[in-house]
Amino acid sequence: MEKDSIAVGLDIGTTKIVAMIGRKNEYGKLEILGVGKSKSLGVARGVVNNITQTIQSIQQAVQEAEANSGYKINDVVVGIAGQHIRSIQHSDYISRNNPEEVIGDADIDLLINQVHKLAMLPGEEIIHVLPQEFKIDGQHEIKEPIGMYGGRLESSFHVVVGQASSIRNVGRCIKSSGLDLSGLTLEPLASADAVLSQEEKEAGVALIDIGGGTTDLAIFKDGIIRHTAVIPFGGNVITEDIKEGCSIIEKQAELLKVKFGSAWPGENKDNEIVSIPGLRGREPKEISLKNLSKIIHARVVEIIEQVFVEIKDYGHEDPRKKLIAGIVLTGGGAQLSHIKQLVEYITGMDTRIGYPNEHLAGNSDEEISSPLYATAVGLVMNSIRNNTHSATPLVELQKPEPVVVRQQPVVNTVIAPEPVYEEEMETVAVQQPVHNVEESTEKRVKRSFFDKYIDKIKDFLDNAE
User: What sequence ranges are listed for the domain SHS2 (predicted)?
Assistant: First the structure.
């Protein structure tokens, strides 16, 4: 990994869009060079529903990241989420022509490409094909078949599927923002890279990423991804419930949730009241914090119970599938007061809050260590593994004959963040855990078919012009 190889991740969320520029330092840690954040307009429950507004939000985040870092962004790795995502388990095999030859990358690629030919529902496409355990001539539980001999190579796969139209809409937004798409990854997998240790993945762990529009789940056991799911509810439905239950506007509801919200109603006394300014000269509205917590509690319980159904579907009650490391909470929703205790109460499993600080360089801004940025950090790590050079120093662009990195699209509207937005994004101070685990060796990432898939999206966008 070159030290000067610059990686860029773009997290297109329902409440915020984050562009993050980073590189690995000499100690193998992630050094964040610049971050840009904008309010997400045009995205609902992880799916783009307004192309123009999404483009404007992406451009605003990208421009802020470029201004903070001194780098010009060329291409990005983007996270995919949304209620259209589903996963399936599939087994497949190939018969090798010459069993006397050792198994190589070409055999693995052939097997993965075969899985990509699976018949999907109309309008669906395969996003990820993730090999789990291999089997060679009947020999089970082989994690690394490269270099072994055998005639029949078999594997079980975790296949992630999504709506082709939703994926292409994301690609269209990236291209119209003047950027290239260098990679596409499932957001819970990116978050897992940022906050989980290899020991947790080996022991068995469920990562719950509570975002604004969706709650993402990724389950690991024996170091292998076993199950993924996207629940179409997140922090925004909690805000909506507060708005309806307290008869206040959405900005006030979000601010109440962030500043005073708790997932555990017993923590608030009956006489704790917060006063909300009235609209247009009306009297201030007084809201009981106990009632506020009851509203939040009811919705969080519903979200966690739906996630717990997915964990049960995986089969965690089977002793061989037991999740010894329990649950890790991340995302903006993980900052809600007392949510850790509530999750432990509902599931009976050990729970911790996941921070991406284990992989970050020591001089990183404290704000970036928040669970809010876990997905963005994971996307930058994904981009680094692809050995990309996704950004160019601005000084290089000021030479006598400047290289045109990207042409700005004709969009003159810049949407300024509303004054209350900065307050909405304030983080709750949570004791950060200290990890003393050694950084694990990243597994070999096979890119051959994935490169073709990205090229296919680019071809589609070019032909659609």
Answer: 7-195
What is the Cα–Cα distance from 99 to 208, expressed in whole angstroms?
43
Q: Confirm if 293 and 265 have CB atoms less than 8 A apart.
A: yes
Place of tokens 């669906």: 124
Which residue matches tokens 């319980």?
Answer: 301
Asked if residues 307 and 215 have their Cβ atoms less than 8 Å apart, the reply is yes
| Strand 124-136 to 139-142 pairing | antiparallel
Q: How far apart are CA 232 and CA 460, in angstroms?
A: 28
Distances (CA, A) of 397 to 215, 402, 411: 41, 5, 22
**pLDDT over 50 (residue 52):** yes
Are 90 and 61 in contact, with CB atoms under 8 Å apart? Answer: no
Structure tokens at 4: 């000067």
Task: State the chain's mean pLDDT as an integer.
Answer: 85
User: What architecture (CATH level 2) is domain 86-162?
Assistant: 2-Layer Sandwich (3.30)
Q: Residue 360 forms beta bridges with which residues? A: 30
Closest CA to 307 of 347, 342, 340: 347
DSSP letter at 399 equals S
Q: Which string of DSSP letters, residue by residue, matches 283-332?
A: PPEEEEHHHHHHHHHHHHHHHHHHHHHHHHHHTTTSGGG--TT-EEEESG
**Rounded to whole angstroms, how far apart are CA atoms 20 and 381?**
11
Q: Indicate the helix (H) or strand (E) that contains 261.
A: none
Closest CA to 329 of 423, 428, 205: 205
User: 259: closest CA among 66, 436, 426, 53?
Assistant: 426
